[in-house]
Amino acid sequence: MKICLKLQKLQRKAFYYCQEVDHPALFLTMRARKTVLTLTDLLYQNLFPVLICAPLSTLTGWEEDLERLDIPKSEYEVISGTKRQKKKLIDISKAKSFLITNKEFYISIPELIHTFKFKSVVLDESTCIKNYRAAITEFYTTQFATIKRRYILTGTPITSHEMDIYCQLKFLDPTIFPEKNFWIFKTKYFYQSWINKWEMYSNKKAEFYHKLNSKCCFVTLSDLRKSIGKEDLKTERTVRTFQFSKRIQKMYDTLKNDFIVSLDEENLFGFQNILQKLIYMRKLCSGYLTLNPETKETKLVDLSKFKLLMDTLETEIPDYKCIILCNFYDEINEIEKLFKQKRKSFSIITGKTKSQARGDYCKAFQEGSIQYIIVNAECIKFGTTLSNADMTIEFSSIMGREAPEQAEMRGTDVYRDDTRHIMHLVARGSIEEYFYKKIGKQEDRKQLIEGLIKHLKD
Q: Is residue 21 part of a domain?
């Protein structure tokens, strides 16, 4: 097999990095085509067969990139479908060079790693093993240690805390952080501080990031833009607001006071209890009152935000192709109902959407067959191309370090666009307004939560 696709300048830099290390960690921004780069290096190394473990939504993308590299279909197989279908595909794939499967394959077809003598393994979106307690982490960090060449790929290796990196690198190359287990690593680099959170020792930061930067390849969005002769991508944010009615404001104030009480009782009930009550407030901003915390039963008590969305779409941007990002399924269900009433052309992507349907919906949106695509923010972080969007509308604020950036970038063509357009729908005087004002500010968790507490107590 030959390497048939010329790499771009930025990819060549990453390719040269791959030749210098035994186990590449490719932390490349979205649209940097890390799958093409990885396949190119695999062809160069000639260590077959290779197992590629990826999110279900990205399997089609891997297959398409193999086709772009002119790899014949006889050389690869995508192992997907029902358990019976997967077993049949395994039986007919023993002579193939590339096997591509869902990263959770070990649940339904654990025999896969024993059937083949893999010489290389690729873990795409490696943050799936950031949690040291998870079964998937235990599997990947123990079952592939003897494989000659291992790869990890992701755009954001540290999604919420620096500790996220340990298990990813333990799978890749345990010598980078040689601590015997997660707890030794944790106590060496971090100490417990404010609200039972862990902060990095100031005298350990240089050592930590030196190890990370010397052993891993980072390509940021800014790097990508410079490589194609463009300035940094601009973000134009607009906000549309609405005011709670007196009845809803009273409900919100009750939840806010309950949240403040929870802060004082944190040592008794735990930080998770505080976060849960934060979610209740966020849901009420979209009009949903939580009736039963255990069953998560909700009731729609206010249509203000939904009316704001429909008015904006119909009066301000009637011809725009829009991605509508939601955090909660209740929101998606209500928007679907309203769109059907108005006979709008749309599709929905959630965690329940099958891979084939997901691909069809994205294609229809890209080609202009539908005007709107309603998505759960967490579900479009991987393997989703919606770059022909005119506007991305955040119906509810997206939390976390990784999700907002990745979700917003799905509606952008970084090679063509100079500006991405994001619209936020915000309840005035609520925590949504607080989070909107914090967008783009470089604050750590402690500063963000301290600011939130001050905001709620004022």
A: yes
